[in-house]
Amino acid sequence: MNNTNFIIHEPADEYHARSRSGEFMSSHLLADFRESPALYRRKVSGEITESESSAFVMGRAAHCLILEGRNAFDREYVVTDGPINPRTGESYGRNTKAFAEWAATQEREIISGKDFSFLLKLQRGVWLHPLASELLADGIAEGVVRAEYCSVPCQIRMDWFSMKSGLVDLKTCDSLRWFESDCRRYGYIQQLAFYRAILRIVTGKNFPVHIIAVEKNEPFSAGVWKLTDELLDLAELSNKSALERFRACCISGVWPTGYEDLRIIDTL
Questions:
Q1: Pfam families in the record, alphabetically (predicted)?
Q2: Strand-pair partners of 209
Q3: Can you tell me the mean pLDDT for 179-185?
Q4: Residue 58: which pLDDT band, with cuts at 50, 70 and 90?
Q5: Res 2: pLDDT
Q6: Among 214, 218, 198, which residue's Cα sits nearest to residue 206?
Q7: Does pTM top 0.70 for this prediction?
Q8: 180: CB partners within 8 A, 6+ apart
Q9: Rounded distance, CA 164 to CA 90, Å?
Q10: Which of 20, 92, 141, 153 could cysteine-pair with 99, CB 3.0–4.6 Å?
């Protein structure tokens, strides 16, 4: 397969809604299931509702600016500090009634001037990295792919994909020095193994997988990591095991916390 006709383009809200409803399994929901089947069940049943944190909003804005460019960013966001208080000559604070009333009339998401300056530093850090800029030179941002995996309807939303470079995922971090630990701590390896598997089902081949990480503080350095096939194969076994347990929970209707059995602490 040499074309990208298998990639679906749809709004992020629509994609996430189809995961939250339980229609499709996503990598993030599978991570919730691995942590606790009960947690997964409560999320898709609507018992747990998650509000967007400021960090999540900034992360989404960073992805848009870095991967899709300024024109796409301007369609989704407006850079402004809001209405001006005539008595002070300065912007109303975000926690004021005046700001809230003004924000409610805006069709685009609001990014402050300070936050936009931060986003530009992230963008510059990524694009000044020679390998990162090469990986992002040609491809598709935020493409969706759906397939049945281990008899479970699944979907992925890729940060970046090209037939040449494969999968590229963009992450922010506090320090590149500890980023490899972040990959294990936050389940990035299992996430990208899930992506690779869905792509393989649709295309018939395994694509290379890279992560671009950029620091959220000065000097906003970026780094690039390639995940080996051997590592992704191991992570895929973990994902398959989780999906098998998921199917068993669907059949039995029992969604345990994962902590029902007695646990032993025997080390200092």
A1: DUF3799
A2: 167
A3: 97
A4: very high
A5: 65
A6: 198
A7: yes
A8: 225
A9: 50
A10: 92
